[in-house]
From TrEMBL:
Gene name as annotated: Mei1
UniProt cross-references to PANTHER family, sorted A to Z: BCL2 INTERACTING MEDIATOR OF CELL DEATH (PTHR12044), MEIOTIC DOUBLE-STRANDED BREAK FORMATION PROTEIN 1 (PTHR12044:SF14)
Protein name: MEI1 protein
Any one Gene Ontology BP term: meiosis I
């Protein structure tokens, strides 16, 4: 089925939402819900379809070309298609790297536009933000080196007017700029305050990957980002005062992140003791899977 469905997608236009939406979803789940052997073949089939990849690029570009979203709470057909497009491309990036699959057509994206879609979110639906962050996490994990993706619009402007230290840091973080990093971190923090479960999981995962990327590129910048005082206020905001409030997956993962980068001004021995106390009193067998996994990582980090 991958052959006819992917060929059908390649003949569509981005505005053919009724046809593209279920088709892209089918391709996405075909990649994820299959055996590793079949998964490798599925990746090869999709990456060999030049028309499909060209269509996906056009779909993604609609993210910043479409008119400003309305106040409606529901997901419009256009936004739903964008979600499917971002998730599928993120998966293709991941699996192309895993299997070193052959590339027949690249996807070109403006990094500044991608970042601005998160930083200046303009009432974008939560699911669309989650989808874009899945993509952003995939490119960060690969250090922007994927052979499937061509990053355009890399930051070269303003270089002459910035102080020399900032220019050196920008060069180390390339293709990201230091100001883009700070803006992205602030945006992720602000979105975390919404306490939406799906959004929180994507935000924390994106923040983890971003700091890992920064640590490889420039340790000083990574440690500076991880030790921002605002993180401590964010933790207090996430802790709603309820029982076992420390045993929330996103809180545990944030605590683990701050421990990993030794942000002692964010998480103290007192908070660590509180988490250990709550964990000792909890019925571990009844904890949700996400909480158990996050607690395991936290304890390993401690």
């Amino acid at each position: 089925l991958l052959f006819p469905v992917s060929n059908l997608c390649g003949k569509c236009r981005p505005r053919d939402t009724d046809l593209l939406q279920p088709s892209l979803n089918f391709l996405y789940w075909s990649l994820h819900q299959t055996t590793p052997c079949s998964q490798q073949r599925a990746v090869a089939v999709l990456l060999s379809n030049v028309s499909l990849l060209e269509l996906l690029q056009k779909v993604l570009e609609c993210t910043w070309l479409q008119s400003p979203p309305s106040e409606a709470a529901y997901l419009s057909p256009e936004d739903a298609l964008l979600c499917s497009g971002w998730l599928l491309v993120a998966s293709l990036l991941l699996y192309q790297h895993r299997y070193n699959a052959e590339i027949h057509q690249t996807i070109s994206l403006d990094l500044t536009e991608v970042l601005n879609a998160v930083i200046f979110r303009k009432k974008k639906p939560i699911l669309l933000l989650v989808s874009i962050m899945q993509f952003l996490r995939a490119v960060l994990q690969q250090n922007f080196s994927s052979s499937l993706l061509v990053i355009i619009g890399q930051n070269t402007a303003q270089g002459a007017t910035q102080p020399q230290p900032s220019s050196l840091q920008d060069a180390a973080l390339h293709p990201l700029a230091l100001q883009q990093v700070f803006s992205l971190v602030v945006s992720l923090q602000n979105l975390l305050v919404h306490k939406d479960l799906l959004l929180s999981q994507a935000l924390v995962a994106c923040l983890e990957t971003l700091v890992e990327y920064l640590y490889v590129k420039n340790q000083d910048v990574a440690l500076h980002v991880a030790s921002q005082p605002w993180h401590r206020f964010l933790l207090f905001t996430l802790l709603n005062g309820g029982q076992k409030s420390f045993l929330q997956p996103e809180v545990l993962r944030l605590m683990t992140l701050f421990l990993r980068y030794q942000s002692s001004n964010i998480i103290s021995q007192k908070e660590i003791s509180q988490i250990l106390q709550e964990a000792s009193e909890a019925n571990l067998a009844e904890l949700p899977e996400a909480t158990s996994r996050a607690l395991h990582l936290f304890l390993c980090q401690v």
